[in-house]
Amino acid sequence: MVYGLSMNLDSLTQKKRRLDESRPLPPEVLKNLEQWFLIELTYTSNALEGNTLTRLETAVVVEKGLTVGGKSLAEHLEATNHAAALRKVLEIARSPVASLREHILLDLHAMILRGIDDANAGRYRSIPVRISGSRVVLPNPAKVSAWMAEFFRDLLAMAGSHPVEIAAEAHYRLVTIHPFIDGNGRTARLLMNLILLQNGYPPALIRTRDRIPYLKSLEKAQLGGSKEDYLKIISRSVERSFAIYFQALGGEQPNAVASSDLLRIGDLAKKTGETLATLRHWMKQGLLEPADTTEAGYQLFEPEAADRVQRIRELQSDRLTLAEIRQELSSKEI
C-alpha cells in the first residue's frame, strides 16, 4: 500500500511531530478542541448524507438537547447518535490500534442507527443494496461476512504503514464493502477518525463543500480508476484539522470555515439574480441549505450554493416539481 505524494505523508508526519512537541495539551485547550470537533464532525458527517440541520442547529440539539422546528425526528436522532458515537471513539482512542475488532465497528454502527432503524443497527445487511445514482456494484449480501473478516485481517496487517494511509484505506474498503443497509458513510468516517486519533493524529474533517468531489473520488476508485483524488481529499482533511489544533494552541477559537468565504443570503441573491423571497422559499422546501448561522441570526451560504441555485433553475426548466427537484438534489448515501 504505497500512496506516495498523493497524501503528502512527509508534511503530515512533520505536523504530527510539531503537535507532539506541545503534548500533553493544556486541559482547557483539549476540552475546547474535543467539544468543537464533536459538533463539527457531527454536523459535517451528517450533512454529507443529507441531514439538513445547520452547524448551529446541530450544536443546539447536541449540547442543549433541544429540538429544532421543521426538522424531522430522524435528523435529530442522527445528530445525537453521531455525537454519542464520537464520544465513544474518543474513549476507545486511548487503546492501541491492534485492539480494533469487529464488535467495536458493530457497536459504533448500532449507535448511529439507534432509534432510527433498530432492526438493522449493529448488523450486517442480508439484502442487496445499491448506491443511488451510482454505477458501483456492491458485494452480494451472502459474501459480506467473509469480506468483513478479510477486512479486519487486512487492518491488522497494515500496522506498519503510515497511520493516515491505514485510516484512508479502512474508510475506502468499508464503504466499498458497504456492509450495512444504512449508515455506511458515517460509520466509515468514525472508523477512519478512530484510527487517526489512536495514532496521535487529529480527525479528518471533510467539509460539506467537498461533498461532491468526495463522493466522485470514491466512485472513481470503486470503478477501477485511480485513488489519487480520494487520497488528496483525506490528506487535506487531516491537514485542515492540524491547522485547527495549532489555531487553538495559539489561543484562537477553532474555526473550520472562514466567515469571509461565506455569502449572506443577500449576497447570494445578487450573485445569482434570484430574489430573496425565492431563495427563502427554496430553503423552506429543503432545496437550499445554509452552511452556518451567525450569532445575530444571519444565514450564511457556501460559495458553491450559487451553483446549486443554477441547478435548481435548470431542473425547473425541465418542468420538474419542487418535490422532484428535492429528490434529484438529495444526498446519496455512500
* Sheet/helix structural class: mainly alpha
Oligomer: single chain
Give the strand tally: 3
**What is the CATH architecture term of the largest domain?**
Orthogonal Bundle
- The CATH class of the largest domain is Mainly Alpha
Low-confidence runs of at least 5 consecutive residues:
none
Provide the domain count.
2
Structure, described:
The chain has two domains: 4-249, Orthogonal Bundle (Fic-like fold); 260-329, Orthogonal Bundle (Multidrug-efflux Transporter Regulator, Chain: A, Domain 2). The model has no long low-confidence stretch (mean pLDDT 90). It is mostly helical. Strand 2 and strand 3 (299-301) form a beta hairpin. It has a three-stranded antiparallel β-sheet. The longest helix is centred in the first third of the chain and has 22 residues, at 27-48. Helix 5 crosses helix 8 (184-198). The chain is globular. Helices cover 57% and strands 2% of the residues.
Brief characterization of the structure:
This protein is mostly helical and about 325 residues long. The chain folds into two domains: about 5-250, Orthogonal Bundle (Fic-like fold); about 260-330, Multidrug-efflux Transporter Regulator, Chain: A, Domain 2.
What is the strand and helix layout of this fold?
Layout: H1 9-20, H2 27-48, H3 55-64, H4 73-92, H5 102-113, H6 144-157, H7 163-177, H8 184-198, H9 211-222, H10 228-249, E1 263-264, H11 265-272, H12 276-284, E2 292-293, E3 299-301, H13 305-317, H14 322-329
Antiparallel strand pairs: 1-3, 2-3
Helix pairs in contact: 1-10, 2-3, 2-4, 4-5, 4-8, 5-8, 6-7, 7-8, 9-10
